[in-house]
Amino acid sequence: NGRNCPKYQSSHDRQNFSIFLPFISLITHHLGTRKMAKLSGSTIELSNNNQVDLGHSSEGDSEEWEDMDWEERSPDTALWQHMIAGSIAGMVEHAVIFPLDTIKTHLQATNMETTKGSARIGSVQTAQEIVRLRGPLFLWRGVTVTLRAVVPAHAMMFAAYEGVILYGGAHSTQHIDASSSRVAAVGFAAGFISTIFHDLIMVPAETIKQRMQLGYYRDASHATKRMVATGGASLFRSLPTTLIMSVPYSSVMMMSNESLRRFLNPTGAFSLPTFLTAGALSGALAAALTTPLDVVKTRLQTQGMTRAKTSTGELHGAPQKFKVRYHGFSDAFLAVYRTEGTRGFFRGIGPRILQTGPSCALSWCAYESAKHFLQAR
């Protein structure tokens, strides 16, 4: 209830996260959870008519904050600290796990039509073939595109995430049961909102990255110029599909991550093992459930560009002009089902889980460590 939520010592945090309030209000309204917070002036009003004052602090509450050890979330953390920590987390996550992403892209971009008459290969064989034909560094081709984009994308994503958690009332780890529906609902909303900010920046970079992973274009600049010269629509063609995939993925991942962290570490004290375990499990679960959507997204982003062509080294520089095969999610979805059946929707699920589980663990550890360091400065 309201008295269990710590009061804030200033309106600084409310102002920091104000840009996210329209989105937070919309999501919390539709979630309809009993304890979900909505904003009103300088207070958080809970639907059971309890209020939490954002602008004043009683002496008892101040002493409680002073006596507490560092927690995962402090109301005094500035917006810029969340954004810097998020950027660091994004760069660490994507740089380390990038080779697995390259393997996954090669697997998902290949379909039965383009490999007819040849043996279908798995993750290990794909990796061996890439290294044999292109060398080991090819596994990191396109990583610079990703690293440039993840700085603003992850900064916005983690700032939005923390804003939702803060205003949703789920920031206090001391008083919330890990099984609470409110924790799950706020985590789901945080994933929903933060993903929108993230994907608006990352989708064009992801499209360029995946085409470079398949062997096209000389570099990122060449890719961008060629794609813009043809109208630029291909940079955002997969945005609706990406959101269809990313919103459920992030919502499930953050919802399970919030619950797991409270289950494993009820006190909320800084704990790298907790971040690693909760991040890995929540990431793997969300990845497995959303692999079919990821396959459709990859087909949209790489249509006309298959591993069967590029792995032979026949194409260099820009791709040949190709006919657009899929005009949207439904076209790509039906094409996969017609040619490959339900199995086609799970191509690359192994590398995806192996990539996403560790990447989420790394991301959360890097984020919380960077935030902890910045708060201590």
TrEMBL record:
Its main location: mitochondrion. One of its GO terms (biological process) is iron import into the mitochondrion. It comes from the Eukaryota. The keyword Secreted does not apply. One of its GO terms (molecular function) is ferrous iron transmembrane transporter activity. The keyword Transmembrane applies. Solcar repeats lie at residues 77-167, 182-263, 270-373. GO terms for cellular component: mitochondrial membrane. Keywords: Membrane, Mitochondrion, Repeat, Transmembrane, Transmembrane helix, Transport. The chain crosses the membrane at residues 138-161, 181-205, 226-249, 269-289. It is a multi-pass membrane protein. It is found in: Mitochondrion membrane. Belongs to the mitochondrial carrier (TC 2.A.29) family. This is Mitochondrial carrier protein.
